[in-house]
Amino acid sequence: MSNNIDLESLDFAEDRYSRLRLIPWWDQERLANATIMVVGAGAIGNELIKNLSLLGIGKILVIDMDQIENTNLTRSVLYRAKDVGRYKAEVAAERASEMNPDVKTKAFVANIIDDVGLGVFRRMNVVLGGLDNREARLAINQSCYKVNRPWIDGAIEALNGFARVFMPPDGACYECTMTETDWKLINKRKSCALLTREQMAEGKVPTTPTSSAIIAGVQVQELLKLLHNDRGLPTLAGKCYVFNGLTHDSYIVEYQRKPDCMSHDTYDSIEERPWSVRTTILRELVAAVKAELGEHAVLDFDREIATVAKCSCGETKDIYCPVHKLRGNEIVCPQCGKTMNFDSIHTLNGTEGCLDKTPLDIGIPLLDIIMGRNGTQMKCFEFSADAHEVFDGL
Fold first, then answer.
1. pLDDT at 34
2. FRET partner for 301 with CA separation of 20 to 30 A, picked from 3, 168, 218, 363?
3. 240 - beta bridge partners?
4. Per-block average pLDDT, block size 10, for the chain (394 residues)?
């Protein structure tokens, strides 16, 4: 009997993902069906998006509000010199699709704190963070816990970095890890909310493309394990991987959940409604909440809304935007030049003077979720009619 093998009879045809499928627990279809949000398109964000694209993640949302600068070119694999001045999110999304045509991407030039609705988070499998400030991390953390979605944080400085995984509703969250110093820095940043963006910009962090590649690689590997959560794979849930690039030491830190942490609110149930923040007026929303929960019910927003500014000279001025987005020049009195005081609200009971406005008019983002409340009885409602606009093209 001949032991010769007819090589021509064997099928060696391989598709793009054949080598990935050699991993015993791998399910490429899960990756193709996944929707991932990447917040921050800087050094870490570039590596996250690159890895997700190479792996064939089905849909990637890229959130960033900044433009590309020359300094980004030494640390960001997706950007070229010709891209300077363009928005990071748009260029990163374009390059990801060029890298892998199987991947659908969409850019959002937006501030994660104010401009991304909770319903967007609710439609994610995992959220990835590549950020350089604590306030944005805290906003992601609170949003993910409200809608019960895991998120993976990454940070770098010089040759060092860390990656950590937060798993609502029961695990330790980002706020659980915050120190007194972290809170002081956040409060300092918040105290600058009425200054110009240039005045409140944080100091630049020294980074390298090598450390961002390492940390983003760990983040995406953790994401893969979360997407294969029925395979019994160990994860960094509630833990932090710390990398010291000088000595190449690394270790794991386990976080403790703080029972009194304010970021553990999770919405028990969310009812989708055919409402849009663009067209549904606040009066209709208040009426719907009262019809659902009783005449004493109120409508709660998850942000403070500045309403009317008042000056000592008697001048008044409508504002209607989230307090976080308010800048000093917006509350300068047009008559006497003094700084005006302003009123704010986060609850509507049906007596306010802004009820003919839409949620978008007062700074509520597309596909957000609001809460109706009557005493201890609560119910959450999503502006589900906005989903088509948010995910158009994906």
1. 98
2. 168
3. 164, 253
4. 52 83 97 98 97 98 97 95 98 97 98 96 98 92 97 95 96 92 70 42 71 97 98 96 96 95 91 98 98 96 94 93 89 92 95 96 97 95 98 94
Q: Strand, coil or helix: what is 56?
A: coil
Angstrom distances, CA of residue 70 to CA of 41, 49, 63, 108, 133: 14, 20, 20, 21, 21
Question: Token match 């809608």: residue?
Answer: 147
User: What is the model's pLDDT at position 229?
Assistant: 96
Report the pLDDT value the prediction gives residue 11, as an integer from 0 to 100.
52
Residues 6+ apart with CB under 8 A from 151: 126, 127, 128, 129, 140, 141, 144, 165, 166
Please tell me the distance from the alpha carbon of residue 266 to that of residue 76, in angstroms, as a whole number: 35
Distance CA 123, CA 170 (A): 20
Label each residue of 117-145 as H, E or C.
CHHHHHCCCEEEEECCCHHHHHHHHHHHH
Per-residue model confidence (pLDDT) at position 179? 83
Q: What helix, strand, coil percent values describe the chain, rounded to 5?
A: 30, 25, 45
Which is nearest to 364 in space by CA: 110, 146, 114, 121? 114
Both ends of the chain: CA-CA distance in Å? 57
Q: Which two tokens stand for residue 189?
A: 């940043």
**CA separation for the pair 190, 26 (Å, rounded):** 44
Query: Helices then strands (H, E): number in the chain?
Result: 11, 14
Q: What are the φ and ψ backbone dihedral angles of 312, each rounded to 5 degrees?
A: -65, -20
Q: Which of 88, 176, 97, 178 is nearest to 133 (CA)?
A: 178
Query: What CA–CA distances, in Å, run from 15 to 46, 51, 99?
Result: 25, 18, 15
- The gap from C-alpha 91 to its chain's centroid, in whole angstroms, comes to 18
**In the prediction, which pLDDT does 200 show?**
40
Q: Could you give the dihedral angle defined by the CA atoms of residues 10, 15, 19 and 23, in that order, rounded to the nearest 10 degrees? A: -100
